[in-house]
Amino acid sequence: MITLEQFEKDIKQKKLKNFYVFCGSDEGLIKECIEKIKKITVEGSGFIDLNYARMSGEKLDVDTVINNCETIPFMSDYRVLEVYRANFLRDKNREDKGKEIDPLRDYVKNIPPYTILIMYYVFEDDREKPGNRIKKLEKSCEVVKVDKLKGMGFQNKVKELFDARGKTIGKAELSYFCSIIENNMSIVENEVEKLILYTGDRSITKEDIIKMAPYEKESDIFNLVSYLSDRNIKGAIDTLNELVYKGEKPHAILAMIERQFKLLFSIRVKMGKGAKKDDLVKEYRLNPYIAEKMMSQSKRFSEETLRRNLELCLDTEVEIKSKSVDTKNAVEMLMVRSMMKK
């Protein structure tokens, strides 16, 4: 298993593998990696439509994958097949795909030299790690774990997005933008585009960023609730403390937790009635990426548990308003109670 940094070094030296598996929590970065592979293999051939294929990993069809891999490239040295959202590679995928992967695992040991097979899946949250199914493939492929960029690496990547669009942003403004935006390149690209359209020909100011960019607290609340679903009180308390450190008031955090449980409950109910991602995006006005994460998180709770947690939020709110209790302690007790089995 290699890092994003090592992958980029290999690509610059044109050291290619015939089979890649990307995994990580930032789909935007993963897509950038795939574009780099395409750029040095099939984009210059003039026949990219014939030498590049893309298929969904929602339903694994080994025969189709193998047939695509066996197809000889047209006027090119390579043919690239991308299998996106290959969730069958995740150990905790509810559908047992273990046996179905076996033929694929056997096939890729002798994949044609002209074929580059790429698969990827996105972690449900920042705490997920590659599982046993990935490890079993490591001998036959290059597994690239795409961790989120941090510090100057993140700032430099964001600056590249502004530069590519011909927009200049000051160092102080760039630093502030990176400090409040969620560290996910798919989301960052959308927010950069919004900020550029909003400011037009003039310079970007801190006030513009404050007005247009969403605060990272939404991601923090998502992670906090994920910790609650795993009954990880330490992770939940650490996230609560981090929010308080960033300046969020405990009563505001309680409101955000309640909103999250309410949205998860609604999504859980809608999914039970057959609603798909596009339906939820439209009804709740969610970013498609966020909608997918919310759908995944809602599955970690039963409807009964989500209903009970909403009641606990309301009880805590009443307790804070009617009694002289420490608000932060009350939120901590809420989190503990939400993890107790009924």
Helix and strand arrangement:
Layout: E1 2-3, H1 4-12, E2 19-24, H2 27-41, H3 48-51, E3 52-56, H4 62-70, E4 79-84, H5 98-107, E5 115-122, H6 132-137, E6 142-146, H7 151-164, H8 171-180, H9 185-199, H10 206-212, H11 217-229, H12 233-245, H13 250-272, H14 277-284, H15 288-298, H16 303-322, H17 327-338
Parallel strand pairs: 1-6, 2-5, 2-6, 3-4, 4-5
Overall description:
- Helices cover 58% and strands 9% of the residues.
- It is an alpha/beta fold.
- It has 3 domains: 2-146, P-loop containing nucleotide triphosphate hydrolases (Rossmann fold), CATH 3.40.50.300; 151-212, Orthogonal Bundle (Helicase, Ruva Protein, domain 3); 217-338, Zinc Finger, Delta Prime, domain 3 (Up-down Bundle).
- Strands 1-6-2-5-4-3 form a 6-stranded parallel sheet, with helices on both faces.
- Helix 14 (277-284) crosses helix 15 (288-298) and helix 16 runs antiparallel to helix 17.
Structural class comes to alpha/beta
- Top CATH class of the largest domain: Alpha Beta
CA-atom Rg in angstroms? 23 Å
Count structural domains. 3
Mean pLDDT: 87
CATH level 3 topology of the largest domain? Rossmann fold
CATH architecture of the largest domain: 3-Layer(aba) Sandwich
Main sheet record: 6 strands, parallel
Describe the strand arrangement of the main beta sheet, using strand numbers.
1-6-2-5-4-3
Order of helices and strands: EHEHHEHEHEHEHHHHHHHHHHH
Low-confidence blocks of residues? none
Helix percentage range: 55-70%
CATH homologous superfamily placement of the largest domain: P-loop containing nucleotide triphosphate hydrolases
Question: What overall form do the CA principal axes indicate?
Answer: globular
Distance between the termini: 41 Å
What amount of the residues lies in strands? 5-15%
Number of strands: 6
Number of helical elements: 17
